Amino acid sequence: MLRVVNFAHGAMYMLGAFATYYGAQLFHVPFFAALIIAPLAVGAFGILLETTLLRRLYGLDPIYNLLLTFALVLVIEDVMRLLAGPLGSPYSTPDALGGITNLGFTLYPTYKLFVIVVSLVVCLAAWWIVELTPVGARIRAATENPVLVRALGIDVRRLVTGTFGVGVALAALAGVLAAPTTNVQPSMGDSVIIYTFAIVVIGGLGSIVGSIAAGFALGLLQTIGAIVFPPISTTLIFIVMVIVIVFRPAGLFGKPESAR
Amino acid sequence: MTQRIGPVALILAVVGLALPWLVYPVVAIDLACFALFAVSLDLLFGFVGLLSFGQALFWGGGGYLAAITLARTHVDAGIAIVIGIVYAMLLAAIVGAIAVRRAGIYFAMITLGVAQIQYFSAFQLTDITGGENGLNLHSRGTLFGFALENDRLYYYVALVLIALAVWFAVRLVRSPFGGVLRAMRENETRTIALGYRVNRYKLAVFTIAGGLAGLAGALYAIGNHLAGLEMVDWHTSGAVVMMTVLGGVGTIFGPIVGAGLFESLDYFVSKMGAFDFFGVHIPSIGEETNMVMGFVFALCVLLFRRGIVGEILARVGKRPGSG
């Protein structure tokens, strides 16, 4: 949305998971509280990064933002590795969400069901805010033409900072949700960020609907791929990405325009 | 023109010749290979304005193919290297045809994504690539009948090839072809209006850069007796971007300096023990060198985007490279 490509998004996801883990270890923060506290904490950290570092690069080619956030990934990941060690720490599924739910046609782990519901709700909320509320309209306008929006008396800087913070908080929320399903480890953001990039390229940059649709569709595709022909499941998403670029360079839902 | 970069080239040549007597010869080999790798990226980023975040595709591809050829067939190492380069260029031609349709961030993401395809393939095709363990070479083989086992000898052979490749890159950016590239970087629309088919030019550079990275990777893999997964990993793509930017984008010689600095800093930091800094105890960070590299790189992006050589050239009042 902001024409800021945040390489550090994966790291924020990792921080979210770690915040959950340490919150539980040190302060006995229950999982449901962590769902709110961790994104807030990491989001605040994101805002700090935006105001102190990223903001300095806005006038330049967005490539420099990519480079800076890449550097941040290296720093954040290594700091966590020093603090927490390279190996993962398990985080157990909250009791209330353990077990299996009978969906009628199939049995499904309750926790995964919970994750699906939460992420659907959050995605819909994000789409609703950006597309249908006055704040969303301002954000979209600020992306299109910052100078004009500023002339209308809207503080574009604060808008950008806020949006960045929310984006980071969402990444952290994903991290909290992922904590019980995977090992919480410093490199967990790595694998995610590349998939995320591919999803965004497929869906079209700046199109929330596109990202959501592509995200869910590819998750499904990957699962099917894993069943039909396991070795290909990890590369499938990139193959799809290539095919999409060949036929629709702007992404499935993106408007055709130059990326620069 | 030649006079302007004369001093830089001379210094680099002296350092290049003396290097295996200053550091371990194997380290010298790595340095020289990374230098060429960084030059290949600079050709794209500095002269066409396309940032490839998947350059490890060609570095690793060239490395793996050369290693596979050597391990299986016992042909001359020269042939293995050529096969590595050809494979890298083929890959680059295919990937380039897709990637040059987009610019900027999209270009970076596409190259990154495609490089991941090769990463996972190398990881899973254990029969051919050795999977997680990488592909070990028992011997470097021979080049035109000369055995390459002596590290210093191998270094000088590699240095000659790398110097030729860098010379080729310099010639390229100063040719009329290079002029078109810079025109594209500065004003693509106008270049199109002048009748140039910019995508073909981009594809050509991408392929050439892929070939150079392939050569660097092949020399690196043979030099280390190993083509490992980290050669195709995206962190390697990131590292080479850091070297290039640190040294100076668009200067050709800058990335060489950047690669040298990056590798030595990495080496120094990983060997550094715990120490006290104004009474504060700093523990040894051991393998976690990325923290320092990331920090230095962040400073570089924030404070001196022209890179070290770019900054020096700007201060001395010379135009960086010839562009």
Strand content of chain B: under 5%
Largest sheet geometry of chain B: 2 strands, antiparallel
Computed Rg of chain A: 19 Å
Low-pLDDT windows of residues of chain A: 256-260
Order of helices and strands of chain A: HHHEEHHHHHHH
Q: Number of DSSP strands of chain B?
A: 6
Spatial shape of chain A = globular
**Average pLDDT rating of chain B:** 80
Indicate the CATH class of chain B. Answer: Mainly Alpha
| Distance separating the two termini of chain A | 14 Å
- The CATH topology of chain B is ABC transporter involved in vitamin B12 uptake, BtuC
Q: Order of helices and strands of chain B, N to C?
A: HHHHHHEEEHHHHEHHEEHH
Shape type of chain B: globular
Tally of separate domains of chain A: 2
State the helical fraction of chain B.
over 70%
Q: How is the quaternary structure best described?
A: heterodimer
Most strands sheet of chain A: 2 strands, antiparallel
Helix fraction bin of chain A: 55-70%
Low-confidence stretches of chain B at least 5 residues in length (pLDDT < 50)?
none
Identify the biggest protein-protein contact and residues per side. A-B, 42 and 41 residues
Secondary-structure blueprint:
The complex is a heterodimer of chains A (260) and B (323).
Chain A: H1 9-27, H2 31-52, H3 62-84, E1 100-102, E2 107-109, H4 110-132, H5 134-144, H6 146-151, H7 156-178, H8 188-203, H9 208-228, H10 233-247
Helix pairs in contact in A: 1-2, 1-3, 1-7, 1-8, 2-7, 4-5, 8-9, 8-10, 9-10
Chain B: H1 2-22, H2 25-45, H3 56-73, H4 77-99, H5 104-124, H6 126-129, E1 135-136, E2 142-143, E3 146-147, H7 151-174, H8 176-186, H9 188-193, H10 198-224, E4 226-227, H11 234-247, H12 253-271, E5 275-277, E6 280-282, H13 290-303, H14 307-316
List keywords for this structure.
heterodimer; A: 260 residues; mainly alpha; 2 domains; two-stranded antiparallel sheet; globular; B: 323 residues; ABC transporter involved in vitamin B12 uptake, BtuC; two-stranded antiparallel ribbon; 14 helices; 72% helix
